[in-house]
């Protein structure tokens, strides 16, 4: 569950190592997917469908702050859980 | 009549056109003859009971919604303003301690979420919730935070700097953070939380600010009482009993009885010597406490137990009162108008104690916040210290046997029995760890109970008088004129 740090460190080293590139791509996909989901769910939760003005108002700002924090935290917890389960299943192809 | 009937048998009297038409459609005539009348007595009872209960429930929930909506409308204009995205919203900290005697530790926070939070959300106030899972946890946390702050102020710890953060991350210096904190506030839910909070404040601003590793200290203390020492001869009951009283009577200073433990002392002594590297001038409690964030009191009573079931039922049908009190509290917080903390003469004032009535009966202003809630504590709580003591005694009585088994097995002085091979008894290391855990829990519980117990006054320090403020009803409760969109 290392988000950005992991991606950065695994990227530039191996020259044209296919495995590593694969891994980096998967990681990037995961992060992009995570980000998109987070944006869409927080958007539906917090930003009203009536666009009165271009800027966010204060209520929406607070809501988005909390939403993103919560999403991240849940993501982290679920990731930990999956990892510990994966470790318990001794890498037996258990994944969600 | 009879002659009329006989003369016109074809058309029965009083049969209107509609009636005749309906009869011919096949509807049984008995239905058409039905006269409305009251249902039977049992039906009446059933109907009136159910309808009044549903009626009460529906009425209450409608009122709840209305009240909540009313307050939301009042503060809504705040969240509809636009602000710079990089600005930080107002943020408050919510403390919810465990209600003594309730296993559900988050009742107070649940109350906050249900009744106060909607107003904060509507008023664009961010919040941070702190839950105390056991009594005393909130106190410890607050004390630690204050000590950390004092250490930073005294220059013992480095204050957070830009370098520790990832590049590009907006950095806010300590002074700005503190300013933000003051603009925010503290939400205190219920009497136990208030007691814990005040105890934490007092402890944090009074105790020395050196870092103490509680686990380490407890481990040392437990080591000293010699329960895991090798008995020269089999322990006698009297010896065990004298041992039980030891941890309370003698703490750190080694007693002559433990002289055979001397070889352990060198390891502990340098620690205690080096544990206060902070110069005395810095370490003394400050004479003036800087202004602290204002406090919002939220009254909260948690009904538990069999005897309070009628009250729970009453509450269920009268949630509107809770909604109103919660919403008012939230409104006060959002509107951000404060008054000084109003603490009347604390009971420890020797000057008046001989003149005035006993302090327990006199009012203490804000320190009496929600005091009546304490009468709802369970009476069985007062035996907590005894219960802990009993559990401790029982545990230590059993420990002797367990320890003997563990040692015998470890040294191979006897073969493990068949049963012991199947379920191996805990080793000495496990026993030690287990004891540490248990002692920590007992001590924590006792400490927590001593903070929240009803006969204990709320902690107070004269230095708080100018530092604390309380949220109050805004002077002008009219809605500010906002153009409705």
UniProtKB/TrEMBL annotation, chain A:
InterPro entries: Tim10-like, Tim10-like_dom_sf. Residues 21-84 form the Tim10-like domain. The keyword Transmembrane helix does not apply. It is found in: Mitochondrion inner membrane. Coiled coil: none annotated. Heterohexamer. The twin CX3C motif contains 4 conserved Cys residues that form 2 disulfide bonds in the mitochondrial intermembrane space. Belongs to the small Tim family. This is Mitochondrial import inner membrane translocase subunit. The gene is TIM10_1.
From TrEMBL, chain B:
It is a single-pass membrane protein. InterPro entries: Mt_import_IM_translocase_Tim54 (IPR021056). Transmembrane segments: none annotated. It holds the Pfam family Tim54. Signal peptide: none annotated. It is found in: Mitochondrion inner membrane. The keyword Phosphoprotein does not apply. The keyword S-adenosyl-L-methionine does not apply. Keywords: Membrane, Mitochondrion, Mitochondrion inner membrane, Protein transport, Translocation, Transmembrane, Transmembrane helix, Transport. Residues 151-172, 345-367 are annotated as: Disordered. Residues 345-364 have a biased composition (Polar residues). Belongs to the TIM54 family. This is Mitochondrial import inner membrane translocase subunit TIM54.
């Amino acid at each position: 569950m290392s988000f950005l740090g992991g991606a950065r460190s695994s990227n530039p080293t191996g020259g044209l190592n296919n495995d590593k590139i694969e891994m980096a791509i998967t990681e990037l996909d995961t992060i992009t997917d995570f980000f998109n989901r987070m944006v869409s769910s927080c958007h539906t939760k917090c930003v009203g469908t009536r666009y009165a003005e271009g800027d966010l108002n204060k209520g929406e700002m607070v809501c988005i702050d909390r939403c993103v924090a919560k999403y991240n935290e849940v993501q982290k917890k679920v990731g930990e859980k999956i990892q510990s389960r994966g470790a318990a299943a001794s890498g037996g192809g258990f994944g969600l | 009549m009879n002659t009329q009937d006989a003369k016109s048998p074809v058309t029965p009297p009083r049969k209107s056109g509609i009636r005749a038409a309906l009869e011919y459609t096949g509807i049984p005539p008995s239905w058409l003859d039905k006269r409305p009348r009251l249902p039977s007595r049992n039906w009446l009872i059933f109907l009136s009971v159910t309808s009044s209960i549903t009626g009460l429930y529906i009425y209450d929930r409608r009122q709840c919604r209305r009240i909540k909506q009313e307050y939301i409308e009042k503060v809504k204009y705040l969240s509809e303003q636009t602000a710079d995205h990089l600005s930080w919203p107002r943020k408050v900290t919510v403390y919810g301690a465990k209600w003594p005697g309730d296993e559900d530790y988050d009742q107070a926070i649940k109350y906050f979420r249900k009744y106060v939070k909607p107003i904060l959300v509507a008023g664009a106030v961010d919040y941070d919730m702190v839950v105390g899972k056991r009594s005393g946890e909130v106190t410890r946390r607050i004390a630690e935070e204050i000590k950390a702050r004092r250490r930073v102020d005294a220059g013992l710890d480095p204050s957070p700097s830009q370098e520790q953060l990832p590049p590009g991350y907006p950095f806010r210096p300590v002074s700005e953070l503190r300013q933000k904190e003051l603009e925010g506030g503290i939400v205190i839910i219920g009497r136990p939380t208030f007691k814990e909070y005040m105890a934490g404040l007092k402890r944090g601003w009074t105790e020395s600010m050196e870092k103490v590793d509680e686990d380490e200290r407890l481990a040392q203390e437990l080591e000293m009482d010699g329960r895991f020492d090798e008995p020269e001869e089999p322990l006698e009951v009297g010896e065990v009993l004298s041992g039980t009283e030891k941890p309370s009577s003698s703490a750190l200073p080694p007693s002559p009885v433990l002289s055979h433990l001397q070889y352990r002392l060198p390891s502990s002594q340098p620690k205690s010597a080096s544990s206060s590297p902070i110069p005395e001038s810095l370490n003394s409690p400050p004479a003036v406490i800087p202004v602290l964030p204002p406090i919002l009191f939220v009254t909260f009573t948690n009904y538990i137990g069999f005897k309070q079931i009628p009250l729970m039922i009453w509450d269920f049908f009268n949630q509107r009162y809770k909604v109103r009190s919660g919403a008012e509290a939230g409104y006060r917080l959002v509107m951000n108008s404060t008054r000084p903390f109003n603490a009347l003469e604390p009971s420890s004032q020797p000057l008046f104690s001989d003149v005035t009535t006993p302090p327990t009966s006199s009012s203490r202003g804000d320190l009496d916040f929600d005091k009546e809630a304490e009468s709802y504590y369970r009476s069985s709580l007062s035996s907590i210290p005894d219960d802990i003591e009993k559990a401790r005694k029982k545990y230590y009585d059993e420990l002797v046997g367990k320890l003997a088994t563990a040692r015998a097995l470890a040294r191979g002085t006897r073969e493990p029995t068949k049963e012991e091979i199947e379920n191996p008894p805990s080793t000495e290391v496990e026993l030690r760890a287990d004891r540490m855990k248990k002692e920590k829990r007992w001590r924590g519980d006792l400490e927590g109970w001593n903070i929240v117990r009803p006969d204990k006054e709320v902690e107070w320090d004269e230095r708080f008088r100018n530092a604390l403020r309380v949220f109050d009803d805004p002077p002008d409760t009219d809605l500010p004129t906002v153009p409705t969109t």
